[in-house]
Amino acid sequence: MDYIKHKVPPVREDRLMACQAYGGTCGDLSNDSKKGCLYASKRTFSQTQGCQLNLSLGMISSMRDAVMVIHSPIGCGGNLIQNAGINKVFQKLRQQSAVGLRWINTNLSEVDVISGGEAKLRQAVLKAEREFRPSAILVFNSCVPALIGDDIDGILDDLQKQVSARIVPIHCEGFKTKIQATAYDSVYHGLIRNLVGEDKSTKPAIIRTPEEELEHQEKISKTVNLLNVGSMSRIDEEELVRLLKALDLNVRILPSYSHPEDFTYAYEAALNVSICATHDDYFVEHFQKLYGIPYVLRTIPIGIANTNKWLRDIAAHFGIEEQAEKLIAAETAELNKAIEPFKAEFNGKTAFLTGGEVRILTTAELLHNLGFEILGLRGYHFDKYGEILLEEYMEDVPNSEKAIFNIGSGQVFEQANLLSKITPDLFVGHIGVNGSAAKQGYPIFPLFGQSDDYLGYKGVYEVATRVSRILRNASFNKNLGKNTRLPYRDSWYEQDPFTYIDDSASIAARIG
Ligand code: SF4
């Protein structure tokens, strides 16, 4: 993969041929995905969908000592306001002197649509530099300047000569893609092009004695870049760092809540360790191409089976398999004893999960291990990384090939119909759809939370504890379900939930 020389990254529809619309079972999806034609499926009706600008902000607006400039009408990125509090608190968990979110919007108007928004962009970047003196200024391009043809790269190249902060253009215009996860590529593209590597014009090269260089190289040979995600809590990070340190590895954490300078020497690492292929494949593959750094990308360490796989993949790279097996044996022996009471409690209960493909498949395995039967899964999109994980999931979880698998982002009407038919005991969902399921009366367990544990061995116990508490008293949501209704006609619930998925093009492509 080598897109870094281009100013703008490709969208995921083109890069990964990702599927955005599907209704069937896990077994069907696995078979159809292997035939390679799922990308051609589409919707004949779409209720809503996410914008990649917002996900880009979710991923990187937590960067410390940086200013976000959103080049757009005032509404784009307006939801940042809900993050201001947690952004500051969670930055401080990493660096006491951190100041939290700083954000400027260029406030494009109708007049700017006619005359261009370039002057406002210049003004905003210079204001960011003058007022805050940040280490980096991240500029997010939105639909309007892209459509009217503002030359943001030309302007920012010119401004870079006038400001000391490193400027990072991020091309994340919402209209360009139906796959919101394209945002991760847009952000990494900007970061790799503009933050990685020393700025030799402002800083002298580091000179080391041969002994110092030897020591430095020794340190690099045991350093991993742990790639976190914006939805991850600090306690989750600490759990993963604890496990990696138990293998005698040094850990550098990127990209969320990082400092711009953390990227400067990010190429000084022996291994890139991802916790989510949907999030990181663009970064790790480019780092392998540009700097020869290998990577671990298979799974997210959620649940015992996937945490074990994650650790084994890392250990295999360093040739420390024996050390990893000892760690796994000690951790799982203690954990299995601790979760035994929950298994009895959850035995026979059913669950439905929705969210990113990697996270739902691994969380489903975790819940299965706790005694749940998984009735269905709903992924935002599906690609080659989901295909591998689904295969492993079906190996780990007996009879799972018969469970429902729906693919769709933002199609809450489809989810409501599906839930009315399969009626799980527990709904595990992403923000944006949990409210809808709650109005149908289902107990909700959030798929992620920035203040809670989900990852590693500790995460298994903590998830079990919280699910137990939710199921013990679900009366609030039950009452909500009895006293509210979703805005769909009864006739919709009588139809097939996948009525508006058109897979005729993919069937035609498959037949040839
Ligand atoms: S879709 Fe375009 S206009 Fe809408 S919020 Fe996203 S960037 Fe802004």
TrEMBL record:
<dbReference type="InterPro" id="IPR000510">
    <property type="entry name" value="Nase/OxRdtase_comp1"/>
</dbReference>
<dbReference type="GO" id="GO:0016491">
    <property type="term" value="F:oxidoreductase activity"/>
</dbReference>
<feature type="domain" description="Nitrogenase/oxidoreductase component 1">
    <location>
        <begin position="51"/>
        <end position="470"/>
    </location>
</feature>
<dbReference type="InterPro" id="IPR049939">
    <property type="entry name" value="NifE-like"/>
</dbReference>
<protein>
    <submittedName>
        <fullName>Nitrogenase</fullName>
    </submittedName>
</protein>
<dbReference type="Pfam" id="PF00148">
    <property type="entry name" value="Oxidored_nitro"/>
</dbReference>
